[in-house]
Amino acid sequence: MLYIVSTPIGNLKDISLRAIEILNSVELIAAEDTRRTNVLLMHHDITNRLISFNDHNKEKTTPRLIQLLKQNKDIALVSDAGTPGISDPGFYLVREAVKENIQISPIPGPTAMISALICSGLPTDKFTFYGFLPKSTKKKIDIFNSLKTKKETAIFYESPYRIIKTIDVMNEIFPEKNIVLARELTKKFEEFMYGTVNELYKKLKDKTIKGEIVLILQ
User: Fold this and answer.
1) In sequence order, what are the residues at sequence separation of 6 or more whose Cβ sits closer than 8 angstroms to the Cβ of residue 214?
2) In what order do the strands lie in the sheet with 75-78?
3) Average pLDDT across the chain, whole number
4) How high is the pLDDT of residue 27?
5) Could you give the CA distance from residue 136 to residue 100 in angstroms, rounded to a whole number?
6) Assign residue 88 a region: left if phi > 0, alpha if psi is -120 to 50, beta otherwise?
């Protein structure tokens, strides 16, 4: 069995009892960042074997994991934080497991985009998740231009190093759209900023923003 195990996005207490049980019982835990996962395991007194599985080694590591699964070994897949397969390499292993008719089971839990969305006050009945925004300003402009007339809620992940430039680009295209910036979710300095794109740009343009960021636009 390949278990897709959701882990905390910040607060280490945000993990299900079932997730702890699975992480204790499997033969192997495939982790995007073994050091980060080891912090979580130590916090919950979980002692188990870890293997690195990330964007850099997924093609090399996947055949080994598939072979173990075919030998009736149970493996848990975890990401850096949140739900594997959401803007991370987890989908690659899942896709190969599906091809090989290997049984897959989700262990539900946190994901940053949903946590941000439910606190945004913006419509949740229809939304599109775009993942991480591209680094290229031109590609960002193309995405934002496609959203100018759309009414659905759009969700993005963005780096703190590019966030001011991103909101600047948004401000040039649709300054009056509603936006919510969610930062450091479930952590000590968790913060939500609400307003129009223009209001948020004026508030942030001369500041340094840190932490994991989710942008929600409508």
Assistant:
1) 112, 113, 115, 116, 155, 156, 157, 158, 181, 182, 183, 185
2) 50-52, 28-31, 75-78, 2-5, 104-107
3) 95
4) 96
5) 37
6) beta
Give the C-alpha separation, 99 to 90, whole Å.
15
Class of 2-107 per CATH? alpha beta
Assess contact for 34 and 107: CB atoms under 8 A.
Answer: no
Q: What residue ranges do the domains of the chain occupy?
A: 2-107, 112-217
CA distances from 13 to 9, 10, 110, 129, 186 (A): 10, 9, 11, 26, 10
- Give per-residue pLDDT as tens, 154-173: 999 999 999 999 999 999 99
Residue 86: both structure tokens together: 């959401």
Average pLDDT over residues 180-193: 96
Q: Which residues contact 198 (CB under 8 A, 6 or more apart)?
A: 171, 175, 176
Identity of the amino acid at 19: A
- Kindly state the average pLDDT of the residues 28-39: 95
Distance of CA 97 to the CA centre of its chain: 21
Q: Which fold is adopted by the domain 112-217?
A: 3.30.950
